Amino acid sequence: MSTRSLNKVMIIGNLTNKPELRYTPQNHGVTSFGIATNRNWSDSDGQNQESTEFHNVVAWNKLAELCAQLLDKGDKVYIGGRLQTRTWDDQDGHKNYKTEIVCEDMLILHKQGGGQAQQNTAPAGNGQSYESSPSKVAPVNKDSFDASDFSDFNDEKAETTPKDDSKVTEKPDALPF
To answer: What is the pLDDT of the chain when averaged over all its residues?
Structure first.
């Protein structure tokens, strides 16, 4: 019996810095950048709390070039990928570790300059391409979030038909981000 495992990461956050594009000696593009994600909750006293996590992201090959070309500090993006931890010894012989998200999918949700994402097709390292168009990309901020901005989730009403042939109509109350 084989054991299964899953290494999958999906985050939506803001870039903390402009992506840096470099090339390996084999001429493979590699881009590194940071993403900040926020978490909000109410503590036991009813006070609103917030914490921020910072994530290191690395993209390779064509996706690395696209990230460096299209992304800027402050942009809101979706990143899909996997976790990877690198180890190396520094000059003093100390072992160092760095855990990164290896980016496989990237989608620009909102440009920092105030405009929405331009019409782009960003091929991921797995050969699939993801298109973002202004009609399907809505800016999201904490103060003016409205689920109706996401037309994919609110196309009229989502209908499902149970086995007893009675109609059930469901509409999402809120999105998970």
So the answer is: 75
Question: In the structure, what pLDDT confidence band is assigned to residue 1 with cuts at 50, 70 and 90?
Answer: low
- Residue boundaries of the structural domains of the chain: 9-137
Distance (Å, whole) CA 89 – CA 99? 15
pLDDT digits (tens, 9 = 90+) for 41-65: 999 999 999 999 999 999 999 999 9
Query: What is the C-alpha to C-alpha distance for residues 129 and 120, in angstroms, rounded to an integer?
Result: 10
Q: What is the pLDDT of residues 5-45, one digit of tens each?
A: 999 999 999 999 999 899 999 999 999 999 999 999 999 99
Q: How much is the CA Rg of the chain, to the nearest whole Å? A: 20
**CATH among 2.40.170.20, 3.90.226.10, 2.120.10.30, 2.40.50.140 for 9-137:** 2.40.50.140
CA 35 to chain centre: 8
Q: Count CB-CB contacts under 10 A for residue 3.
A: 4
